[in-house]
């Protein structure tokens, strides 16, 4: 639970809320073809039989000193510039989380695990 305090009292945000918020933002980013589980298993994912992955398996959230550290695992569309997609994701995630929760984001790491056609 991430607790934010203001003049009216305390507000708590669960990690699952932060993860689902990240999942919604990632689905809107151009160049992202899907989310991949953080613990990628050889076999099913490498042979192209990917299904839908929930954001709670693709996003890792840590809280250190009241600041968020986020790691996201994605697949990008073949032909897109990985650095541009990553910069877009970092900017959109940081803005969305800080705007909706008020919790500062310290670091966002984007792991590109696959490319899809």
Supply database-style keywords.
single chain; 117 residues; alpha+beta; Alpha-Beta Plaits; four-stranded mixed sheet; two-stranded antiparallel sheet; 32% helix; elongated
Largest sheet: 4 strands, mixed
- Low-pLDDT runs of 5+ residues are 45-50
Mean pLDDT: 85
Order of H and E elements: EEHEHEEHE
- C-alpha end-to-end distance: 38 Å
| CATH fold-level name | Alpha-Beta Plaits
Helix content: 25-40%
How is this fold's topology laid out?
Elements: E1 2-6, E2 9-13, H1 15-28, E3 32-35, H2 55-58, E4 59-64, E5 67-77, H3 82-101, E6 105-116
Parallel strand pairs: 5-6
Antiparallel strand pairs: 1-2, 3-5, 4-5
Brief overview:
The protein has helices at 15-28, 55-58, 82-101, and strands spanning 2-6, 9-13, 32-35, 59-64, 67-77, 105-116. The chain is α+β, with helices and mostly antiparallel strands and 117 residues long.
What does this structure look like?
This protein is α+β, with helices and mostly antiparallel strands. It has a single domain, classed as 2-Layer Sandwich (Alpha-Beta Plaits). The chain contains 3 helices and 6 strands; from the N terminus they run ββαβαββαβ. The strands form 2 sheets. Strands 3, 4, 5 and 6 form a 4-stranded mixed beta sheet that branches. It starts with a strand and ends with a strand.
């Amino acid at each position: 639970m991430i607790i934010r305090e203001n003049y009216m009292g305390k507000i708590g945000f669960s990690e699952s809320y932060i993860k689902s918020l990240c999942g919604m933002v990632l689905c809107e980013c151009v160049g992202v073809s899907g989310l991949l589980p953080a613990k990628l298993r050889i076999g099913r994912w490498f042979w192209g039989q990917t299904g839908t992955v929930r954001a709670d398996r693709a996003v890792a959230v840590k809280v250190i000193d009241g600041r968020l550290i986020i790691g996201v695992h994605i697949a990008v569309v073949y032909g897109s510039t990985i650095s541009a997609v990553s910069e877009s994701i970092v900017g959109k995630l940081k803005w969305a989380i800080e705007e909706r929760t008020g919790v500062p984001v310290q670091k966002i790491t984007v792991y590109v695990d696959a490319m899809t056609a």
